[in-house]
Amino acid sequence: MSVFLHTCNLNIVHAFRTFEQVWEELCADIRDGVLTSRVNVPSIRTAMAKLLKPDPELADMIHKKCTGLSNWYGLIPALFPNAKYVYGIMTGSMEAYLKKLRHYAAELPLLSADYGSSEGWIGANVNPKLPPEFANYAVLPNIGYFEFIPLREKTEDVEKDKIDSTFPCMEPKPVGLTEVKVGEEYEIIVTNFAGLYRYRLGDAVKVVGFHNSTPELQFICRRNLLRTINIDKNTEKDLQLSVEAAAKLLSDEKLEVVDYTSHVDLFTEPGHYVIFWEMNGEASEEVLKECCNCLDRSFVDAGYLGSRKVGAIGALELRVVSRGTFQMLLDHSVPAGGAVSQFKTPRCVAPANKSVLQILCDNVVKNYFSIAFGSM
């Protein structure tokens, strides 16, 4: 195998986290040529029985390589020595898994896949050697007709109090592919051969340059994933940076955040942010309390900070969920019609998404409230 790839890097990380837990069992299956009794689907057992033969030599080799690793660093090249790079979607909500993926990949390069969506392809990664965090995508003008709604003008007007932020704003006029400006942020509109007419993708992007005459875009966030209670506006990226800052406090206890999501609780007075965390072990009460405070402090949006200081937004709440909770979200999405390869952990769970919210709340084992801006 020269290329290790998957649609989303979440699935690669999830596969190797599972491998960490069952690798000895897998070695036993390979050595004996018989599937473990945990695999209880008859059709799978029948199919594998035709393929699986005893291979003690391979089992011993895998066992030796796994026991020789330090905290699973470099697992991918150890198991797949011919791999040249790891390829997958690594932007947006997938960016949160890059640290763990780099741990598994060691020195193997990470290549971010081209920019696409369920509605079609948008751009090609023309600088694949760039780190995934800085991946740029040249728009493919032959795929469809692209327009761009400027985002900065509307935001600046609200911030400068030129208009009341509670008053409905008129959208800026969309501009064409060749009319965008470097450094500006836009929302993408697409008209394509599939029948979509001026369809708003909901992606906020930044123009970072041009490849020949087509703009190069950097993905910023999903516009519908804004967390807001008062005048605060925190994006998926803001949440990621906040979680990364707080997760550093776990390093002394050799723990890490497996996955996370958020929720805006408007049923309390005042409303407050709720962060759900799953960890790979048990952290002390003192560390988790400080993590909660750090999460709260790390949201640097002026609207959020101002609202917290005057009490217009309540203390941030950290809810620690039991191990395997985010696997339950994946298991829940598949019977509902979702494909495993397309699954993305929701970074902001809306109140209307009652089933997902219920799974998270049912598995909370600890919760903490921030005192970063004073006691509750």
Automatic annotation (TrEMBL):
<dbReference type="GO" id="GO:0016881">
    <property type="term" value="F:acid-amino acid ligase activity"/>
</dbReference>
<comment type="similarity">
    <text>Belongs to the IAA-amido conjugating enzyme family.</text>
</comment>
<feature type="domain" description="GH3 middle">
    <location>
        <begin position="137"/>
        <end position="222"/>
    </location>
</feature>
<protein>
    <recommendedName>
        <fullName>Jasmonic acid-amido synthetase JAR1</fullName>
    </recommendedName>
</protein>
<keyword id="KW-0436">Ligase</keyword>
<dbReference type="Pfam" id="PF23572">
    <property type="entry name" value="GH3_C"/>
</dbReference>
<dbReference type="Pfam" id="PF23571">
    <property type="entry name" value="GH3_M"/>
</dbReference>
<dbReference type="GO" id="GO:0005737">
    <property type="term" value="C:cytoplasm"/>
</dbReference>
<feature type="domain" description="GH3 C-terminal">
    <location>
        <begin position="237"/>
        <end position="350"/>
    </location>
</feature>
<dbReference type="InterPro" id="IPR004993">
    <property type="entry name" value="GH3"/>
</dbReference>
<dbReference type="Pfam" id="PF03321">
    <property type="entry name" value="GH3"/>
</dbReference>
<dbReference type="InterPro" id="IPR055378">
    <property type="entry name" value="GH3_C"/>
</dbReference>
<dbReference type="InterPro" id="IPR055377">
    <property type="entry name" value="GH3_M"/>
</dbReference>
